[in-house]
Amino acid sequence: MTENRRPAADGATHGAPGLQTRGTAPAPPQSPARIFWRQMKKSPLAVAGGLLLLVFYALAAIAPFVAPYSQEEMDRDRYYHPPHSLHWVDSGGRFHLLPVVRQTVLADPRTFRYDEMPGSDQPLRFFVQGAPYHLLGVVPMTRHLFGVDAPGRVYLLGTDSFGRDQFSRLLFGAQISLTVGLVGIVVSFAIGLVLGGIAGYFGGWVDTVIMRFSELLLSIPSLYLIIALRAVFPIDLPSQYVYLGIVGILAFIGWASLARVIRGLVLSIRKQEFVTAAEALGVGRFRIILRHILPNTLSFVIVAATVSVPGYILGEVVLSFLGVGVQEPAASWGNMLNQARSVRALTTFPWLLYVPGLAIFLTVMAFNFLGDGLRDALDPRRVTGGRS
Amino acid sequence: MSDPLLRLDDLKTYFHTDEAVVRAVDGVSYEVHAGETLAVVGESGSGKSVTALSILRLIPQPPGRIEGGRILFKGRDLVTASEAEMRRIRGAEISMIFQEPMTSLNPVFTCGEQIVEAVVLHERVDRRAARRRAIEMLELVGIPSAAQRADAYPHQLSGGMRQRVMIAMALACRPSVLIADEPTTALDVTIQAQILELLKRLQQEIGMAVILITHDLGVVAETADRVAVMYAGQVVEYCDVRSAFARPLHPYTAGLQASLPRLGETRESLRVIPGNVPNPAHFPDGCRFHPRCPVMIAPACLEPQTLRIIDDDHAARCIRADAIAAGTLDPAPPEQERVP
């Protein structure tokens, strides 16, 4: 105890904080969050993916405001309308800062060819009056982010076979398609973490029962299981119940593989001395699982969650594509894609495919990039790199 | 003498593996009084750590099981205590610190949080009071700028600092018994001395009993009041620390001491106890030390031996202990041939 100074006097006598830490580990200014950020900045793709997802989720949240029309509004004059082209120079040759759209007429009813009417310029305007809605479900509003004055229409991404605006449906569909992943992850990871933790910590017959059940789930082809489970619900359920049903089905299937990995992690963590130390302090079993063991799997769980979100999004797409998911007229990216099933749609109305397709593609890619970046940034060897 | 705080009475902890029944602890008895330090000495595999874990009932179960004996703590038998009762005792009345300061703190929580958890688990205090206590404890164990260090994560501290945090955590609820399982083995020699000094000081301040598990005879000589020497799951010698060093009555204890090189002594080779620690799944019949014993006599040593009091307060598990005590028999292993 030669160098043991009186701790209370320590801060008072030595004004410089650097002196206090002499001879021991450096002072701890770096929280794990800071280290995490420093690592994240090293992978620009992950940051870009994260930002893109933030934008997507924000747009989905305020979809009724950003969308010029509602998801169900049909324009009976303009089925299969191609995306409007935006003109910065109007028919009179004048330049506009905000683009103008020209109204169209159906030129050929067989091929749904639309021609622009000369002189029908409609300037794109911000905060136009439109159909009333409730922003975020509470604030009553009638203004939309952009649009053209009635009776003109603007279809940035074209219309579908019912003459509904694809751009608006994409936004409303995002509300379902993007949240199905998050809610599904929360549900299935909660189940998977708790069951995997219990199985790994207690072992014995508890472990056997949980693991055999998860293997049972994994041994059934998931697509068959999804459709079989979907068949349990009546086909004409209100769309919000269908949504919950889909989340439930996907989560019910998704927890099994996670629980197996968590169990393996728990098996190795519970052998570490800090678990015995916690037991020696009198910490209860469930508290040990929840507070001491599972937090140590966090870096794995965050990464696993991020890379499994696309699976849920695609799961919803598959269900809706097969016609057992979200029911028309409610929009989801899956049933938007459903409209692009025919060869004719692919050749003549390609926007039916590439609008939802690109949205799904970008989202999935963004999640994967983000997951990769998180994996690097949360690498436990790097976070606890101070080990001597 | 007053009643002991903790008394082990013929404790048996067996592990039932697929191949054999491992009798890791086979009839261990010792006791420790308030304010006293009992050193439990022995090679790895002698069952000293399993004994300690048995006291807290932390034996992995299955395969482990306490097969017999009693653990009397303040008059209660911990072998038959309920799990809830054990949880109240762990950390509050009997605490334990471990060998590896690197792994015995949870890496995802700050040191302060971990001490706070120990406190709120056993005492009716709010988190703010618990945090004050945590900082107090960190100061008590000699961590400079404790308030700041309370927010440090374990990986930001050195090994010695971490062991201090462990001690702070174990002592946060002022337990009456502290089990220290090789608390200094993983540390540098200079830090070792500091930690032992700290334990000694805290023991005097708190007045607790300490069970110090170690294989380091130097540590024993420095800190212990009494010594229990363990070999192959049994206590082979049990006495106060002076007699253990001045007059060992069991050939194993004598061998351990003889194998210790002494400063200033010129010797060509090291003295060693011949042979190896027996496999706990297959202990030798009779006296478990007899295959390695320099003073073994057949057939008497092929019979199981009991721990018996030889003189005063000095017990040994050896049939020839009387002769050793009388000074007519040298139990130390013979000088070896030159080891290259």
Structural write-up:
The complex is a heterodimer of chains A (388) and B (340). Chain A has 388 residues and is α+β, with helices and mostly antiparallel strands. Helix content of chain A is 57%, strand content 12%. Among the domains of chain A are: 77-160, no CATH class; 178-341, Orthogonal Bundle (MetI-like fold). Chain A is built from 16 helices and five strands. In chain A, strand 1 (87-89) and strand 2 (95-108) form a beta hairpin. In chain A, helix 6 (166-202) packs parallel to helix 15, helix 8 crosses helix 9 and helix 12 (298-321) packs antiparallel against helix 15 (351-377). The two termini of chain A are 22 Å apart. The relative contact order of chain A is 0.13. Chain B has 340 residues and is α/β, with parallel strands linked by helices. Chain B is built from eleven helices and twelve strands. In chain B, the strands form two sheets. In chain B, strands 6-7-8-3-9-10-12-11 form an eight-stranded mixed β-sheet, with helices on both faces. In chain B, a hairpin with a 2-residue loop joins strand 11 (308-311) and strand 12. In chain B, helix 3 (111-122) packs across helix 4 (127-140), helix 3 packs parallel to helix 6 and helix 4 packs across helix 6. The longest helix of chain B has 18 residues, at 189-206. Chain B is globular, with a radius of gyration of 21 Å. The chains are: A alpha+beta (388), B alpha/beta (340). At the A-B interface, helix 1 and helix 10 of A face helix 2, strand 6, helix 3, helix 5 and helix 6 of B.
Descriptive labels:
heterodimer; A: 388 residues; alpha+beta; MetI-like fold; three-stranded antiparallel beta sheet; two-stranded antiparallel ribbon; 5 strands; 12% strand; elongated; B: 340 residues; alpha/beta; eight-stranded mixed beta sheet; four-stranded antiparallel beta sheet; globular
In short:
Chain A has 388 residues and is of the alpha+beta class. Chain A has helices spanning 7-13, 17-20, 32-40, 44-61, 63-66, 166-202, 204-219, 222-232, 239-269, 273-280, 285-293, 298-321, 333-338, 343-348, 351-377, 380-383; strands at residues 87-89, 95-108, 113-123, 125-135, 139-147.
